[in-house]
Design the sequence.
């Protein structure tokens, strides 16, 4: 206790806490202005003449405003980036190359599964377009199939009938052509029953999808029957394939030995073992070259077509599904080893009987993440679960998001994307109306009403291969004969003689070994910002950080303490007044009250000394308190009156 | 910070301030009484470093000299640095920014053309004569016997050939330009003994002459195919310009006849999505998603399923045989409000193929004004925009050529839009326009017309990089039903199968797009910061210090003026001043006030400070005592200050 007191006393003695030097704010200001190093302030006090002072106040305020404005500009432009482009010449890693046949499964293998669908499609074609003319071999097959499956009814058409609408008839039908879906109306004619001759091009074809309780339906129309049939077929195809096990699907598709006839890389021979299988729901078995398995990534030592990947692909056009795919060829995509190949979206097609040369040029981009831009390094700050086994990309995020919404809204997963955990693919045995749900959802997705585009951010770093494609006839007329026979002999397992149109040659190579990197870096650093702010402070007012501290001290700490002291004194006064006289002279004039306060002012010095406030501000006699605090009004009135009286006298 | 200062004087009334309030009222503007006083005041109160030492240390000459040297050195250093900084700023350097954005993109406009301007059957009568002569020429020059019976027919009437000007002829390689007639003669004589001539020594061309045949030259080609095509094209332009006004737009129903199927984003297109125009070389062109379409297509996801997919007719049945040597269709991707220059940025589609074109967008934004030579909207380019679309460099160059063509040749080139009231070139009306055109073309490509310098780059350019992949379409297994269906629905003649159709997919490869933009690398803010840094480093002074110096100079002038005035008054005016002046002279010494300057217009002349001011010199001016009185007659102060300020600087 005693020790505590002692320390307290010592601190009080050695480090006295005094109030501000000036007793009033006005004096404080004057003191500050005379002593500060900031330019302009001193002149306010020192200058003679009211106009001069006013001008100096204006100058100083302008300088302060300019400083604030310029510093705000500096700070707001702090998060900008500068970009540097570097070109390296080095040995480049070869990217992963994924090659798919456009046709997913050998038609002979899947025909059993799709027989009913094919029959009905042909039936629809016949009824809608009167198309029955097929080659003799196919007709025989078709007849055999149709005879075998005579008993089964047209279950696909019953589920989702293909309809033809007369466009010219009503204005409502015109709406269908725009592709916008709308509620079904009674005007829809069911063409499945009677043969309709679609000679007029005024007619559109489409199908109708309904929700669970068939209360709301949507009609999808197509300006061309080709598209309508293909879409319709695809819907049913997805239903059927969704029920097939993955192993069976892999077996039905092409094997690596079948697809790849020859392979050369960097001047050395390679074969099917260098390719990794990757099963794509819509493209069947795809094969990825150099996907980084065994932790080895191949690289090329030279640019040019000789040192890239050269493959000859076997595209068996006979085995193509006639309704699912209408073009022939292969698809190829160049991607990073840990990236998912979105072959259906961005693949490059390769033509049969042609040599396609694809020259690559590598560009790497690195962006700065928050707060410079909204991009993400990995999945950590994206609220969507990754259903692909690959690194982050915007495309993966969007597809994952859509699939998640699909499972959430429709109860099942869409066929062309991977399965999320605990969900299974849609088919109309279990989810009879998933298609309506899917189309609705897709419309919402495209119109950005699902919020996927807002949730997914772009990736911060990506590699991009710019491709240049050129084509040449292959094989040439003179080399065709020997080349085809040699290849037929090589490809032992194909029992037929190879045709020119069954083959496609593909060359993928680096055009040069220059790698372009676009790297963002912060344009401003903290040092630059500070020096710029310092420059501004110095330019306008010759101010510094010490000045700023001074300003804070004077204008915040000292002024506040003066005001607080003043208020405290007032409160004290008021309290004392309330205590002392009970209520005899309650209604006296304001002057009386002021006088009363003046009397009580005697207490004040003791109080201030108790507060360790400066005992004698401005060296005044403690006994006589300055009367200015309480008789403000009186005294202020007085000089102003004086001034008033004087001004007219002067003028 | 200054705000509370202004409020402060309220609670603090007239305090017991250190300077005694001898003067109850401060004047609006006070001046020092002498230069010395003024300098003393300045030296005491200035904030310019070094200057105090220089001006105010007058006791020591050595010191003054030293400080003068130092001051000059730093002054020089500072201005040298200032010069460097300003030099950098006024060279307007730019820094390149590359932004990688990823967002929903507006699908660009896609123009597809038939590559056949007119159905041959419809234009046959106009072209009949030209075709016959062309075939005759081909026979004469190359012994090419067209299966057409017209040849034999025309041979009988060889004189018809003379009806067309500028005949195609064979020329020896160093074609003597002056002896045109001899060349023609020798050409005709050599035509018969054709096989003996070494092919290398001959060129094919046609002659073009000016109005009065005084100057002629040969437009020659090394390949006969080029020559025939160019010659045919030249005549075709003339025929076309005659036909132009009457030609109706053909193939109204594009969705049925040329475009079999059209889908965007898995929804069918309709008439509102495309507009039609006719190009004299590329035929009927359909522009999808241009600025006239009701709502623009947006791509919110990349990939082939979310783009434009077209099935096109590429049948060649009624093509003009000598004009169109290519088959297929021509496609071009361009911005919404840019015209489609099929010549410049087109892409040919092969028939019987599915062409997938993947796009990626790239934008370039340049800084205009002082930072670079580009134009924001073309309004400041001295070339009239004949296209009525957004400014691009191509638009400008074509317009520039057309304007020159009209000025030099008096008629408009048919491939560019004409200004109002100008007709297209036709040698029946303007018989030497070919001569004029080829001369102009030569001048244009060597930039003697100044088109390339006049046409500045636009400040913002959006380009679409295209890359294509091909696959055969339709496949063998599906072609039966596809063709059948097309023939039933679209009146497609099934005869030539695969060559009659083509499929086109255009889609965004990625929604990331790169923006190359420029930004000034030295902005005004950084320039000011750098100036401030330099200034602080060398001088420690600020803008307010400059104002102080300005005030000093103003004071000096004012004092000089007042002194002169006083002297003038005391010499000439005081005897005749009368009662009032005498009163004031009498009163001023008594009131020992410093000299004051009243803002009233009459006061400088009427109220002289009087000679008594010298008395007050000894006492330091106590004027900077208080701020308080300033606010008391606030209304009058403001009024007087505002009355005075115009004269102040």
Sequence:
């Amino acid at each position: 206790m005693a020790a505590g007191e002692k320390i307290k006393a010592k601190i009080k003695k050695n480090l006295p806490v005094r109030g501000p030097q000036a007793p009033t704010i006005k004096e404080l200001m004057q003191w500050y202005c005379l002593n500060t190093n900031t330019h302009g302030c001193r002149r306010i006090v020192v200058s003679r003449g009211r106009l001069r002072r006013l001008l100096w106040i204006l100058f100083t305020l302008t300088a302060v405003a300019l400083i604030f404005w310029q510093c705000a500009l500096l700070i707001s432009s702090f998060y900008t980036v500068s970009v540097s482009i570097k070109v390296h010449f080095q040995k480049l890693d070869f990217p992963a190359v994924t090659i798919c046949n456009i046709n997913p499964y050998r038609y002979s293998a899947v025909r059993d599964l799709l027989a009913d669908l094919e029959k009905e499609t042909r039936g629809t074609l016949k009824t809608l377009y009167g198309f029955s003319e097929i080659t003799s071999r196919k007709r025989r097959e078709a007849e055999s199939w149709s005879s075998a499956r005579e008993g089964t009814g047209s279950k696909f058409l019953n589920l989702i009938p293909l309809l033809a609408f007369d466009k010219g008839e009503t204005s409502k039908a015109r709406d269908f052509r725009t592709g916008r879906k709308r509620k079904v109306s009674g005007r829809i004619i069911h063409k499945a029953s009677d043969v309709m001759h679609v000679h007029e091009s005024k007619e559109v074809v489409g199908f109708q999808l309904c929700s669970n309780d068939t209360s709301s339906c949507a009609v999808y129309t197509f300006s061309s029957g080709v598209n309508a049939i293909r879409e319709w077929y695809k819907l049913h195809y997805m239903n059927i394939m969704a029920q097939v096990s993955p192993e069976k699907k892999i077996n039905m598709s092409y094997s690596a030995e079948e697809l790849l006839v020859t392979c050369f890389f960097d001047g050395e021979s390679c074969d099917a073992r260098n390719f990794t299988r990757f099963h794509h729901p819509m493209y069947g078995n795809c094969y990825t070259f150099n996907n980084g398995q065994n932790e080895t990534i191949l690289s090329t030592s030279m640019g040019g077509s000789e040192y890239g990947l050269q493959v000859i692909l076997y595209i068996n056009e006979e085995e193509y599904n006639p309704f699912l795919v209408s073009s022939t060829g292969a698809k190829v995509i160049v991607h990073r080893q840990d990236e998912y190949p979105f072959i259906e979206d961005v693949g490059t097609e390769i033509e049969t009987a042609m040599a396609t040369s694809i020259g690559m040029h590598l560009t790497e981009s690195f962006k700065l993440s928050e707060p410079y831009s909204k991009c993400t390094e990995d999945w950590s700050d994206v609220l969507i679960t990754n259903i692909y086994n690959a690194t982050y990309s915007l495309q993966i995020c969007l597809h994952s998001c859509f699939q998640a919404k699909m499972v959430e809204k429709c109860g099942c997963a869409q066929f062309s994307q991977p399965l999320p955990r605990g969900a299974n693919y849609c088919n109309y045995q279990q989810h009879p109306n998933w298609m309506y749900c899917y189309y609705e959802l897709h419309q919402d997705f495209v119109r950005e009403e699902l919020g996927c585009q807002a949730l997914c951010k772009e990736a911060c770093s990506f590699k991009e291969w710019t491709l240049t494609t050129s084509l040449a006839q292959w094989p040439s007329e003179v080399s065709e004969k020997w080349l085809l026979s040699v290849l037929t002999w090589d490809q032992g397992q194909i029992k037929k003689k190879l045709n020119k149109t069954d083959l496609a040659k593909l060359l993928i190579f680096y055009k040069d070994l220059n790698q372009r990197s676009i790297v963002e870096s912060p344009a401003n650093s903290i040092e630059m910002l500070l020096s710029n702010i310092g420059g501004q402070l110095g330019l306008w007012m010759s101010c510094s950080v010490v000045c700023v501290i001074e300003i804070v001290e004077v204008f915040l700490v000292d002024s506040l303490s003066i005001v607080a002291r003043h208020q405290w004194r007032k409160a004290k006064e008021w309290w004392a007044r309330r205590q002392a006289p009970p209520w005899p002279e309650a209604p006296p004039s304001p002057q009386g009250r002021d006088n009363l306060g003046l009397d009580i002012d005697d207490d004040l010095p003791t109080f201030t000394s108790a507060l360790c406030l400066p005992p004698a501000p401005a060296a005044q006699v403690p006994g006589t308190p300055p009367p200015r605090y309480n008789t403000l009004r009186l005294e202020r009135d007085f000089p102003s009156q004086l001034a008033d009286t004087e001004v007219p006298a002067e003028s | 910070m200054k705000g509370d200062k202004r409020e402060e004087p309220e609670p603090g009334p007239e305090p017991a301030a250190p300077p005694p309030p001898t003067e109850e009222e401060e004047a609006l503007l006070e001046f020092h009484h002498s230069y010395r006083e003024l300098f003393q005041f300045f030296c005491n109160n200035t904030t310019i470093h070094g200057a105090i030492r220089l001006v105010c240390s007058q006791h020591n000459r050595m010191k003054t000299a030293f400080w003068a040297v130092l001051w000059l050195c730093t002054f020089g250093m500072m201005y040298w640095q200032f010069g460097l900084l300003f030099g950098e700023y006024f060279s307007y350097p730019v820094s390149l920014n590359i932004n990688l954005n990823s967002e929903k993109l507006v699908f660009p406009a896609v123009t597809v053309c038939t590559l056949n301007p007119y159905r041959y059957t419809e234009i046959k009568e106009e072209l009949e004569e030209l075709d016959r002569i062309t075939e005759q020429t081909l026979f004469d020059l190359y012994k090419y016997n067209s299966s057409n019976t017209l040849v034999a027919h025309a041979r009988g009437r060889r004189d018809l050939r003379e009806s067309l000007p500028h005949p195609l002829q064979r020329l020896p390689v160093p074609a003597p330009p002056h002896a045109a007639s001899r060349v023609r003669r020798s050409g005709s004589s050599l035509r018969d003994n054709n096989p003996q001539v070494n092919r290398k020594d001959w060129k094919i061309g046609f002659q073009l002459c000016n109005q009065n045949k005084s100057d002629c030259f040969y437009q020659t080609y090394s390949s006969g195919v080029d020559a025939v095509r160019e010659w045919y094209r030249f005549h075709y332009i003339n025929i076309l310009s005659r036909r132009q006004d009457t030609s109706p737009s053909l193939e109204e129903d594009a969705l049925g006849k040329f475009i079999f199927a059209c889908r965007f984003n898995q929804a069918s297109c309709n008439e509102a999505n495309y507009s039609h125009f006719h190009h004299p070389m590329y035929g009927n062109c359909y522009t999808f998603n241009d600025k006239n379409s009701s709502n623009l297509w947006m791509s919110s996801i990349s990939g082939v399923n979310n783009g434009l997919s077209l099935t096109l007719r590429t049948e060649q049945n009624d093509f003009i045989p000598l004009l169109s040597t290519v088959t297929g269709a021509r496609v071009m991707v361009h911005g919404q409000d840019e015209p489609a220059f099929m010549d410049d940025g087109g892409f040919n589609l092969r028939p019987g193929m599915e062409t997938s074109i993947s796009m990626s967008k790239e934008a370039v934004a340049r800084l205009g004004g002082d930072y670079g030579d580009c134009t924001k909207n073309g309004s400041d380019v001295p070339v009239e925009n004949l296209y009525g679309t957004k400014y691009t460099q191509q638009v400008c160059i074509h317009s520039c050529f057309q304007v020159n063509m009209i000025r030099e040749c008096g008629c408009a080139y048919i491939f560019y839009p004409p200004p109002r009231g100008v007709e297209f070139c036709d040698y029946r009306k303007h018989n030497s326009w070919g001569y004029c055109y080829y001369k102009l073309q030569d001048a244009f490509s060597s930039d003697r017309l100044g088109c390339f310098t006049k046409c500045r780059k636009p400040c913002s350019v959006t380009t679409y990089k295209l890359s294509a992949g091909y696959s055969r379409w339709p496949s063998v297994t599906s072609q039966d039903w596809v063709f059948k269906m097309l023939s039933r629905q679209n009146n497609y003649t099934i005869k030539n199968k695969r060559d009659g159709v083509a499929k086109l997919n255009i889609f965004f490869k990625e929604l990331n797009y790169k923006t190359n933009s420029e930004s000034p690398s030295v902005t005004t803010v950084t320039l000011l910061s750098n100036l401030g840094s330099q200034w602080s480093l060398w001088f420690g002074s600020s803008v307010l210090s400059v104002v102080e110096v300005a005030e000093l100079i103003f004071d000096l002038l004012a004092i000089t003026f007042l002194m002169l005035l006083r002297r003038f008054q005391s010499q000439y005016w005081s005897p005749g001043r009368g009662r009032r002046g005498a009163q004031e002279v009498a009163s001023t010494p008594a009131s020992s006030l410093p000299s004051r300057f009243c803002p009233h217009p009459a006061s400088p002349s009427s109220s002289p400070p009087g000679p008594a001011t010298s008395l007050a010199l000894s006492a330091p001016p106590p004027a900077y005592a208080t701020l308080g009185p300033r606010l008391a007659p606030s209304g009058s102060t403001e009024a007087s200050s505002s009355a005075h300020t115009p004269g102040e600087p």
